[in-house]
Design a protein that fits this description.
Blueprint lengths: L8 H13 L3 H8 L3 H9 L6 H11 L3 H16 L2
Length: about 80
């Protein structure tokens, strides 16, 4: 069976939320109070989504913090599994 690509939550943030909504990282930072550098690091896959960030994303995008935490947990598990 072929192994699926492990997609970082930042890619989902960028392609699934920011681009369709025509939002920039700067605008998301201003609206959520999250530093723009943190959002950029998440989008690049250089940073994990923390619980605090998940809460702010959920409030802004109208979904649940569990959505963001589960994306991160699934990514972490896939990365560590052989």
């Amino acid at each position: 069976m072929a192994k699926m690509t492990n997609i970082h939550p930042g890619e989902i943030l960028s392609l699934g939320f920011l681009k369709p909504m025509r939002l920039t990282a700067y605008r998301l930072a201003k609206e959520t109070g999250i530093p723009q550098t943190r959002i950029g690091e998440i989008i690049r896959g250089d940073r994990r989504i923390s619980v605090a960030t998940a809460l702010r994303f959920a409030r802004f995008f109208g979904n649940s913090p569990e959505f963001w935490i589960n994306l991160q947990a699934n990514h972490d598990l896939a990365r560590e599994r052989p």
